[in-house]
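Sequence in, structure out. First:
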Amino acid sequence: MPLNDALMTRRRFIELGTTILSAEAGVLAGMSIPAVAGAMAPLTSGRVRVASVATDVEGGLLPALLDTFRLESGMDVTLQFDNAPYSAARQGLVDLVISHFGHRDTEGFVLQGLGMWPRTVFANQLGLFGPAVDPAGIRGLTSLVQAFGRIAQSQAPYLLNGTPGIRYLTEFLWHAAGKPPKGNWLIETGGSKQNAIALAAEKEAYVLWGLTPFQRERMVHSYRLEPLLTADPLLQRIMVSVVVNAGHLPGTNTAGAARLQDYLLSPAVQARMLEVHYPGIQQAVWAPAGRHNAASRLSSLI
């Protein structure tokens, strides 16, 4: 897909979020989550600039949470997103970065002193997709290892998404499933990301891919694939927030960023994340991850 078309697809995905993202308790993409009374003392000035990877923005979670933060704090929050959020942070244009923990730039940014210690905030979700006929009979399973074993045993086609994290996960699944013989059922030439999902649809194969990009792509492509397994915690991808260090990047709002980070980690806001759903998927697609931080850090939030 040409870059401009991809960007327009993403913008359209966010604009049409209310037709894609459903939620309990009246939570919809592009709408504010109701404020919690007394959650935060109003602050009438200050601005926090946030840069994030795309998935939590396209999935509607971060815009909704930031919308409520604006109401409760009185602070102005700006949000930009792409897959290189640390680039803007290095230029002093960002106060808080949200990315996957394994993002290629997270480690270097923090170790160079440009950012504070990463705090786990939530996890987004991969899914195991496959044809509606489900030849391996994995629909209804909750174990990804068991599903992979059934795919191998039935010799149903499985297309390897070459994205590094998914390639790693597939290798893990192969070991956990008892190292079944590799044969024609394992298609290792599927490329990655959009190429992988398109080829999997063409070959009626199983494939691992992100739920958010799948929801986005099926708006413009009639992929004959369905999310068949999403409940296994192995499919979660931890995401972190990193407060930019004003000591190394003068002019950044470290205090405001820390306040927003505390808000995202608060038990009340963490609980709201469970309310976000996608059509046809019953369980929450955003897993709260605040509890993974150090106990001393959590004690200051309650």
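Second:
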Amino acid sequence: MKAKKLLALLIVFALMASTSIFAVFAAEDIYSPWAAWQGFMSESVYGLGNAGVYSDFTESFAEAKFLPVYESLKAKFGAGASLDFENKDAVTRGEIVSALYGIIAEVLGAAPGISPIGYFVENGLINGRASGDYQLDLICTAEEMIAFSVRVYEFLSYELGLDSKGLFWKITGEGLPNTVYLLGTIHAGDASIYPFSKIMLEAFDNSAYLGVEADIYTMSEEDMDYIIQTQMIQDGRTIRDFISEETYELYVEAAESFGIPPEIYDYIKPWAASNAIQNAMTTDESMENSVSAYLGIDMFFLAKAVNSGKPIVEVESIRYQIDMLDSFSNELQEMLLLSVIAPPSAEEGEEALSMEEMAEYARMVTAYLLEAVKTGDEAALTEMLMAGRDYEDPLMAEYNTKFWDIRDAAMAATIEIFLADEDAGGDFFVAVGAGHTVGVTGIAEVLKNKGYTVEFLGGG
């Protein structure tokens, strides 16, 4: 029982939406409009090169600025030769194309005799400034170099099958005007889950709306104040009045180890305290191979929607989520806090896990989830996400009912509204936590049982 409870809570930590604002890269201020999204992907998602690459985007660049990007591509794909440009202070478009083609040819074994520019044109990796004019002798700008590099990164990823297939469904109803594309997300990720499959990105591009649990990008000051006030204990008591003395002592030790001051840790509710400790643990810079909420799947699509001007609609709201957490009984809140500061062992009869062991186990769970997302392994994800749905233990029953079941049903009902909305003028791309999409109470199964056509588009 302890092992299942631990696994269930660790999965929730991996899937839980962040309440911090995702700072979308303000590309329009520094890139030309055509290069903005590729610049964002290069720097913030794929991590090509280093900080020195990302400046003076519309200016020419020296060889030294391209080398970090080139080395990143070599490391990713295990190919690439030494470079020797004729003029190291002013590299041409043609030279960049030839250098990047060298990686492609080595990785894919391109046939001899194919010209680099011919290959780029045939595969849509370069756009002419005029019909058929690729101006290869012109000095390349930094943003052009970045765009070429991103295109090659994504081209090779698709050719090698490295794109993420995801938990992804197409939902339609007889006689209904709209289609809903449903994507199960993980709210923290790493660069390895990008790019997403072409069918997923095409569905997003062709949809009129992005639906998310909560639009945290456009969160208002009022919403932020509401979050802060709801987390705080308002009546003069402290957290010590809500948890046992033993739990409090463990909590103080954990909070102080992460530099959380008593004026904060003493005056937040236990559910907020468990979130604070868990967030501090998973964002600890000393942790290796940590994942980031900024690379979470829903964060990516929020950034993409904002960049393209696509309207965002909420399936829930941030206030709904905060109110749900605040509705947990005191006993459940203390259990959640204990699960972070004194987590049970993964094996029966063993001592509680240390914070370091908890972090390592959490990374293992997240890595498994990310790998299943990459491959679109619906069966593996369903088995893991449903592993802790315990309804015998009263506290776990309260948790699973409030956190999963009630919300699953409400999300399914909202998607029914999207499907039938004659005034919408287009389809919906809905990205919600993966745990809400699978299992007998999950959105996909609920809608299938109601007679909607639910087609799984993930996988190979």
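Remark: The longest strand covers residues 167-172.
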